[in-house]
Amino acid sequence: MPLTTARRSGLVDQVIEQLRMSVGNGEWAVGQRIPNEAELVQSLGVGRNTVREAVRALAHAGILDVRQGDGTYVRATSEVSGALRRLCGSELRDVLQVRRALEVEGARAAAARRTADDVAHLRALLAHRDACLAAGDTDEFARADARFHLAIVTASHNPTLTELYRGLMEAITASVASGHDSPARVVDHGVLLEHIVARDVDAAAATAAELIDVLLAEVTQAS
């Protein structure tokens, strides 16, 4: 989506919002370099200082990463994601520990609150995940697995929990991809889903914990 020319009032806030939208709607993906300062000035119809201030604000929020002599890159899709990525860092163990906390509670709440529509959506996502696993498509498998777990958390119908998990999606997807040869890949996620369908709160939480514990054990052994 092309950037529109900003109005002359509240220019910095408007530019921040437009840049945030370009990231949020996927026009600029995580890890991608955004247009340089001169291009942004021309596209937005504002001065260099306005662009610099907006980029600086988004970098402070963790959405952009300014690399001197290289350019500005997308670091995260939202302020929440940027904050969580800073808290978790790049250590796989850190990400997995946060995943465990969120996914166990998400599975527990999903088993108690899931709807019929939630179940149908989860079954479709699980079928796609398993198809990617069978096909050996590692990249799409990582994305499909992360979407399946996000859907479980979403089925908790706890907006705060869901937003926290969604903010970590890039790191979660990366953690799935990093463990693509792990036995956790062959742990039957269908068991977790069936516990949720049966509204077995304790079993759903225990299975969600087991899936992450397999990965945590491997990371510990490798360190």
- Counting helices, strands and paired strands, the structural category is mainly alpha
Helical segment count: 11
Summarize the biggest pleated sheet: 2 strands, antiparallel
Strand order of the largest sheet: 1-2
The end-to-end span amounts to 44 Å
Number of strands: 2
If you compute it from the alpha carbons, what radius of gyration comes out, rounded to the nearest whole angstrom? Answer: 20 Å
Judging from the principal axes of the Cα atoms, what is the shape? elongated
What order do the SSEs take from the amino end to the carboxyl end, as H and E? Answer: HHHEEHHHHHHHH
Chain-averaged pLDDT: 85
Strand content: under 5%
Poorly predicted parts: none
Helix content: 55-70%
Features:
223 residues, mainly alpha, 4% strand, elongated
Task: Record the SSE blueprint.
Blueprint: H1 11-24, H2 37-44, H3 48-60, E1 64-67, E2 71-74, H4 79-88, H5 92-113, H6 116-135, H7 138-154, H8 159-167, H9 169-178, H10 189-197, H11 201-222
Description:
There is one protein chain. The protein contains 11 helices and 2 strands. Strand 1 and strand 2 form a beta hairpin. Helix content is 69%, strand content 4%. Strands 1-2 form a two-stranded antiparallel sheet.
What's this model, at a glance?
The chain is mainly alpha-helical and 223 residues long. It contains eleven helices and two strands, in the order αααββαααααααα. The chain has helices spanning 11-24, 37-44, 48-60, 79-88, 92-113, 116-135, 138-154, 159-167, 169-178, 189-197, 201-222; strands at 64-67, 71-74.
